[in-house]
User: What shape does this take?
Amino acid sequence: MILPEVLVHSLLFGIALTIVAYVFSEYLVDRLSLNAVPPLVLATIFCIGVVFFVPGVTFQDYNAGAQFINFLLGPATIALALPLVKNWRTLKKYGPIIIGGVVLSTLVGIISIYVCGRVFGASEAVLVSMLPKSITTPIAMEVSASIGGIPALTVACVIFTGMLGAACNHRVLRLVGIKNDIAIGLAIGASSHGLGASACIGKSDLQLAIAVVSIALTGVATAILAPIMLPLLRSVG
Assistant: This one.
């Protein structure tokens, strides 16, 4: 299928494709009862598929219009402060537990990725690039570059982690019997950053608030611990 050049090169192309992909994804989720898969994940896959596999369509064509949607990330991020304000007393009460959970999660994530990478024979560059997979993209790219990774590969790992988390986190936590909103928000925010945390929207304000705090703290913890842990892991392995 080849799309008309006038359509592809229009500023409306990226916006229209994103909206159509999301609406179609919502329809599929409702029609097929895919409750474990957020529409955002399906829409992302659909847009990537169009950019990569439809002849004549490039990322530049898509981004020319989609960048205006990307601009809305700023206001959307600020809006996340609302559940934080609503649950400020709870956040303050359980602050030490949240910080401890984030530090433990970060250490387990770094160690498990390094060990799995070694077991499956990943090259050093690939292994290092995967270490910051659980934090938000801008921080992950900087951490990856600082420890000798490949930022572009890190971005791919971050996106995959977020999509997997958004699709599976709540189901996995439910299977293991975790029902506490604080534990759920902490686990999701610390493991699959903003994309994973988007699955908390509509489920619980407390879950979302804890997840947002976990995202920020996990980014800081990874930036500090990854450069420290990497030489230690290399010396052991």
